[in-house]
Amino acid sequence: MAEQSTITFIITRQDNPESAPYEETFHVPYRKNMNVISGLMEIRQNPVNAKGEKTAPVYWDMSCLEEVCGACSMVINGTARQSCATLVDQLEQPIRLEPMSTFPVVRDLIVDRERMFDALKQVKAWIPIDGTYDLGPGPRMPEKKRQWAYELSKCMSCGVCLEACPNVNDKSNFIGPAALSQARLFNAHPTGEMNASERLNGLMEDGGIDGCSNAQNCVQVCPKGIPLTTSIAAMNRATNIQAFKNFFGSDNAH
Amino acid sequence: MAEHREFFSRRLHSLLGVIPIGVFLVQHLVVNHFAVYGEESFNKAAGFMAGLPFVIVLEIFVIYLPILFHAVLGVYIVFVAKNNTRKYGYFRNWMFYLQRFTGIITLVFIAWHVWETRIQIGLGNEELNYSLMEGILTNPIMFWFYLIGVLSTVFHFANGLWSFMVSWGITQSPKSQKIATNATVLVFLVVSYIGVRTLIQFAYGV
Known about the structure:
heterodimer; A: alpha+beta; Ubiquitin-like (UB roll); Fumarate Reductase Iron-sulfur Protein, Chain B, domain 2; 2 domains; five-stranded mixed sheet; two-stranded antiparallel sheet; 8 helices; B: mainly alpha; 3 helical TM bundles of succinate and fumarate reductases; 79% helix
């Protein structure tokens, strides 16, 4: 790699949410062990495109730089992933960067992932413990279960699973795999379990779990390796049982 | 149930694909397989099926209404997907795409097949017997149309069986889903044989 002094980025840019997208090419000096973000940082330092014209620096979202926050997702050479964890040496050139197409673009590579947070609200992906008095300590969680649940809790709402899912698009109202798995996480928690049916009913609302048609791209692309399709199948079983309880009535329908 | 209409329709769609449509498909192909045992066997078996008590009621509730519902919602499901096998060429994503592709082919095939056989028989233009199918399938173009139609229908059934098991929460773990994949491949091969063997009998008399 010694001779390779520059790397080329072809970036799909968009000046504001309403304007039309366009491509711009940049040459960036090569350094060893670069990730995609360090390339974008070079462009920010010297925002001159391949034609030698001065241009506005490329905007992108980032925070933790260690694949924990989920902010820096983008489509890199055709597949959605974290730009912090994607190494330049492992990519084919030129490197094409696009914003994720499932979400509305704010500017350049920044997208608005608000729909993911709306989805978490739909399935009530939290544990309600606020009250007017101290409820005391909750039930304990077995260590083995905690380790299992930890894997599900790694979800960082990065949106890569939604981008890869053929059923998440502007024609469908499907909320996507991430929130379905979060419902499973909170239903597995000993305190969260007390509100399990509320999350299951959220999953059964329009755009919920029935939007999944098992293409299973989500589990392949998840940067955190979350067993999303196992979560979906588990929630399929749970929502079906809940639906029967709702319909016929049951002592355990709550 | 009223507030979960979409959930309810999708679950019903999944269920109807297997019960009764899948059961009917296998029954239909098995009964037609009598053709391989000779013209008389086929005529006897087909005559028995057509002579079942309340046959029109059975047809409406076991075949026509379930297929109509499955087809209408199915076309909508095809419409709302944005296939991306080029970017994400995983096995299950291809199965997802093929499920939609074969769904449309199967719909066209079934519409043609019902028009050409059941409706013509109902109108009194044709009679239900071996020579009706022989007449259709000795035409090489129709033979290939039926071959593609039967294979597409059986694929849609076998792969649909796999996703039925996921949608109803029967197979959850990756291992159980893998076993289900192998089992449904077997279903595809066996049911395809039963159907295609019959087509060859009608077309070539062997």
